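for the writeup, i need someone to sanity check this before i put it in the appendix. the sequnce is what the collaborator sent (i think, or maybe the updated version? ugh). structure was predicted straight from it, no edits. if anything looks off just tell me and ill rerun, i have time this weekend
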Amino acid sequence: MVLGGFDLLRWRRGSPSELSGLQGTQAAPAEAEVPDQTDPGAEMARPSGPFEMTAIGTDPRVGLWWYIHESKILLFQLPGQQWPPCSVVPLPSTVAAQCVAPLTGAVQQGTSQIRTPTVAVLYDDAQLSVFPHGRRVDLPKATNWPFGEVPLLIRAAAPHPHAVGVALVVVTQSGRLLSLFLAQSAHTFEVEASRLWPMVSEHCLKNFFKRIRRYGFGDVSQDRHSLEDAQFLAHQIEILPAQRRGSLFDVLAWGEEHLALYSHPRSTAPADLMWVSSLAHLVTGDVVPGRFLSVCCNSEASKEKLLVFFTGEDPTRGPSAMLTRLSLPSRAAPPEPSLAVASVAPKPSDGRGLMTAFGDVAVTAVQVDSERYCICLVNMPPWPAALQAGVQQIVEFGIAGLSLLPEGVSVGHIQVLTPHGLLSCPQDMFGGDKELEGKAPSTADAFLQVASDFFDAGQEDQASSLCGRAFSQMGAQAMLAAVERRTQHLLDSGDETNVAAQLSKKSKSLAEWLRFLHQAGVWIRMGNAPNITAAQQKMVEACERISALQQMQEYHDLEPDVFASSIHHALDTKGGSKSPEEEALEFYGRPSECERLLSSLAEYPRTLPFGSGGAWDAVVFVHGVVCGFIEAALERRSHILKAHPTSLPPPDSHQLQRYWPRSAPSVKGVGSGWLMAPSVQRALEEIRSLSLEVLPVPKQRLPLLDAQALRVVEGLQQLCRSTLRAAHASFVDLHASPMAKLREAVLKDMAHAEASLHENAKMVKHRTLGLAEEFEDVEAFVRLSAWSDLPRLDGMMESEAFRRRVFEQCLAEKPLHPLFFRMVRCFPPTKAALEELLLPYPELRWTLELNRLNEVGQVGISPWPNAMHSVKEIAIKAMERGDASKDEHRSKALKALASIASLAQEEWSLAWCDVAEKGYRADQRSGGGCG
């Protein structure tokens, strides 16, 4: 199937299409055919922190936005799920986000599968790459590319008029424009550049020279000055569909003070400059115009209007960002000037602004200062009525893009692209108080309560609008404190008289509260507010606590007496005035302190005589309760991250290091560490110690005792694994110091428990070794596998990083020195790596040197003098470096080694000379006899 030009460029967002894969002889070998992926970004780490503003690009026409991160393009649907990306495109080098042009939107297959969009990337050296469905096709610099021009931005304009391909518009850093024509012919690609587009229209030049001829050599400085003023340099562009039959597309381009319209012919020739007009000519009246911020074309009743967003000096408000609407009767002539302007924002601090329009609504955004932005919604009644600017809302998050998604004939839904995610806003988010129905909240808590009520009632737009007003009036810090207070209230308050009903109600309320915070844009509006990460973790922690308590409540129903006693001790009630039912309701009513029950449960088996069947059953029961408690909390966190991927901050890249493919999967979001709080760690340690105490250790093995011991050890194994999973979720990094310390203690207890088993039960499974492998305890894994499972260790040695760790550990631990020599023979390192490893161990270096003689075999004695010389050199160099200065015995040993090696070398040399001389004489005698 040949890729058609109209399939290559989609003007309407969200139109599914089946695209064939592009083939090219210039395809990069490393980027060969990549199969379609349903979840392209699931295996990669989400970038930590907010996105960088300069690395974000957006194209509302095709419904995509993208982020340049570590030489990759992460593409997202607009709107759509914000993680994982719908496509990940690897780049040979980092490019600017403005130099990426999507040629198609994400193609939806069925309900979930998404194929990779096609994008074009233009590098600083004018090289072009096309990425059809994940492949990379590199093209040489376009033919006729103007010398010295560096691309600033690129836009997909229209299908190629004569071939399968697309026409692209490029703006260079010098402000010049040109077009690129990308074409596919059979299985090859070609790209051709037009000449630079004109800066002055041709009719202006003709009229200028005509006036020179008419007036001879008279004074034409005024005409020349007008001609120089008309020269145009572009900073931004907007692609417009062509109106004339002979045109391929039109381009609206603007710089700081001039606006121009180009019409591109249906050929590779440069575009025609239709007109150039200055901002001072377009905006008249009392306003003193400054510079263009943005321009867009909008149609009203088959008439085209230009929306001009610019800075100016307002007589009443001072320096401001203003919006005006210009009539454009014909594209062949400049728009008519306008007197009517609307002030929509303060003057931007960075000199840039964003604007989008749909139907009779426009939205503008500017940066007010280093931390705050201003958004304003403008209603555009039919011409010639004036524009109606809404309330200017100050927000505390960066704005990288705006779009209006169609919801009707003249209604648009505002999408604000921020470095923290995509914020969806209703059209009337800056309207009056009509949606409050008489309610007038005056505090942050009241705003959240009313907005949450609207959201629960199904009025999401009103809830989002109210949240926007609340942040504008109260500020992000006050709203963040209100969110934390409401989360704590939902967690610990309740009026139910039944434990199960109370927990179920809290779980539902917290789930709805979490959904409200995401869908109403509360988290995104926080921006870079301090403590937002802690607030998000507390929110997810509240949900985890409820799920853990619900699991514990199920065990409570199985053993009510055990839990009644444990809850009584956990509450530390005196006098015994409350019934067990009242104590249970009080305990389950405060989930923020639910972990205190773990210590009380650890004491339950001690009330039974050790060695009895009841004690063993009690220990196994406690194992199950604690494992269920931890696993329910972790499962809830996983479910939240799947439903709301941005609920928790992502881990840093250095925390995701792995040695083995079968290790515990990486953490997707960093939650709170409540599962590894000091009180929880003490309770878990106490339960592990209790498990070791109840294990039977009789002199003579009995089948019944062995069976009971196996049950305890298996329960302890599950407890240890749940403990390590909770530690991994809390500490994130498998190789961090807190994780290593806890893991060492857990594996030590597990090893002691496994050692107490009968030999037949012990060797069935290497439980400790399996935990060491899953959670990457490298030291324990090497020791245990060296003792019990060498093939398992050999299978892991394929990893270069792990192989070096094994060599270093074997050298550092004397009992593992024999393993080192075995590994060096089986997995020989490079000579440089070996020298570096053995530099602190000269005594092992000469041992390895002598061991190599066994590989030579018994053919002659000549290798021995060389080996002795190497040993002597190693000992002398070690003494010269001062390696042995800290250890007197080691220094003496090296000196003795050097002396022995020197004497041995001399003896071997003399012996070799003697043998050689005797052999020579024998040959002489033999030869003489024959003579």
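The chain has four domains: 5-193, 202-232+243-248+260-457, 531-796, 843-925. The mean pLDDT is 79.
thx in advance!!
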